[in-house]
From TrEMBL:
Source taxon at top rank: Eukaryota
Residue ranges crossing the lipid bilayer per the database entry: 12-31, 43-61, 67-85, 97-117, 137-163, 227-250, 265-280, 292-313
Name of encoding gene: ccsA
Keyword Transmembrane helix: yes
Protein name stated in the entry: Cytochrome c biogenesis protein CcsA
Organism: Ahnfeltia plicata
Length: 323
């Protein structure tokens, strides 16, 4: 069997399906009454996930070790993680927004892995001594899944900031369950006058059983904010477990639990950013846009930790560097 041909075909299919699925999800938001688009987007994501799963398994069988030994394989695994988390969250929350924000980043990752990385970097190579350990599967896979989860949660926070642009959003209730919100907007006729609207659960127009436009936006922001908080709350423990597992592996491989390697340093910075986000949400010391801004910063920090450090080619994790 020509493993290389099979893998390239599956990756190309994944790229094409990501492009089609992106159009489906965005069309589903533009035309919400076309319900078949929701099903088509979900089916497309499942097929993409299966293609990437088969690709990773075939590399595992071909090379005899878990396919996370280089940057190309980790990018494929990250995309698989993004689509896997996406499928679980969409099945539970039935929100098209998850696909709308996740599919573009997945498409970018596959495009970068397939078209930007040299062919030599896409080929599997013998493991360096530090990677010849059972910790490879546990540490790296957990870290990648935590990255995928935190990326989706952070993307929703960025979406929250985009939709709420020009408005002052303040959470007036608990971070758990239904989140009452307060919206403050500038009056177009008098900039000094403010309109304050507080939503307790669902607000309706007196002459209609449907939410008004302003209330609908508040409910949308409430849903996005709550979903982002819960997803980041899932990704943070995974990140913590991954860092601890990496420290144990580092002690086994290099004789030290922590060496302030660039990768380790940025992993700690990532942990602190999202710890601060969750602390601010749990204690309600920050509300509204401030936690979303912090999560958006976390999105950039995750990419610096995962990919940016690889461009340096320095440190104990330099086996995955980009030339």
């Amino acid at each position: 069997m020509n493993w290389n041909s099979l893998q390239n075909t599956l990756v190309n299919i994944s790229f094409a399906l990501l492009l089609v699925t992106l159009l489906i999800y965005w069309s589903g938001i533009a035309f919400p009454k076309i319900y078949i688009l929701n099903t088509a987007g979900k089916v497309g994501t499942i097929i993409i996930n299966l293609c990437l799963c088969i690709t990773l398994i075939s590399r595992w069988i071909e090379n005899g070790y878990f396919p996370l030994s280089n940057l190309y394989e980790s990018l494929l695994f990250l995309t698989w993680g993004l689509t896997f988390i996406h499928i679980i969250l969409e099945n539970k929350n039935r929100s098209k927004l998850i696909g709308a924000v996740n599919i573009p980043i997945s498409l970018f990752i596959i495009a970068f892995a397939s078209f930007s990385l040299p062919v030599e970097m896409q080929k599997a190579a013998p493991l360096v001594p530090a990677l010849r350990s059972n910790w490879l599967m546990m540490h790296v896979s957990i870290m990648m899944i935590s990255y995928a989860t935190l990326i989706i949660g952070s993307l929703l926070s960025i979406l929250f900031l985009i939709i709420s642009q020009g408005q002052n959003i303040e959470l007036t209730g608990s971070s758990f369950g239904s989140l009452p919100m307060k919206l403050t907007t500038e009056n177009s006729s008098d900039s000094s006058q403010k309109i304050n609207i507080e939503i307790k659960s669902k607000s309706f127009n007196q002459n209609s059983n449907k939410p008004t436009g302003r209330y609908s936006r508040l409910n949308l922001l409430q849903s996005i904010d709550n979903l982002s908080y819960r997803i980041i709350g899932l990704g943070f423990p995974l990140l913590t477990i991954g860092i601890i597992a990496g420290a144990v592996w580092a002690n086994e491989a290099w004789g030290s639990y922590w060496s302030w390697d660039p990768k380790e340093t940025w992993a700690l910075i990532t942990w602190l950013i999202f710890a601060a986000y969750l602390h601010s949400r749990f204690t309600k010391s920050w509300q509204g846009k401030k936690p979303a801004i912090l999560a958006s910063i976390g999105f950039l920090v995750v990419w610096i930790c995962y990919l940016g450090v690889n461009f340096l080619g320095k440190g104990l994790h330099s086996y995955g560097w980009v030339s």
